[in-house]
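Q: Sequence in, structure out?
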Amino acid sequence: MVRLNRSLVDDTRGVSAVEFAFCAPLLLLGMFGVFDLGHNMYTASIIQGAIQKAARDSTIEGASSNEAALDSRVRTMVQQIAPGADVEFTRTAYNSFSDVGKPEDWTDINSDGTCNDGEPFEDANGNGVWDAEQGRTGFGGARDAVLYEVNVTYTRVFPIAKILGQSQIFHTSARTVLRNQPYSAQNVPATENCT
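A: Exactly. Output:
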């Protein structure tokens, strides 16, 4: 009996299979994680390249009539990598690069930090009211700086998120700001009064 137990202890056949059974799930989890990360980074870089090209094409005179074609090219490139991706586009025009994301200028006469009580403000987007975001939706005009944003949502290719109990839906975005070519005079903001 002792001889039989000793032969079982010394027998190493099948050890590799048992070790692999312990290590394989972690190895596969790590590989899926790397593949998922790589796919998402590749998709983000393709989106950035596509948006740069579309934004450059948007800066020429008459580009606004080709908006659907420009957006379609970006959507096609994204969906080649992430089939079924939801792609949303936003264009916001500003008078200059330094205006991107900033409120319209106003004179704070009563020093309360709010544009009110008839205080004068520069109506950069021409809508007649003071705005915390001075951009105008669309391509803008000559010499305007245009912020072009693309938001993409798609289902992950690799199931790593699902395995870890997270959402299979992945969101990414890309943005760029370019100045339109000087094909005519730039619009000048009007001066209005706050309400």
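The beta strands are 86-94, 120-123, 136-137, 145-155, 169-179, 190-193.
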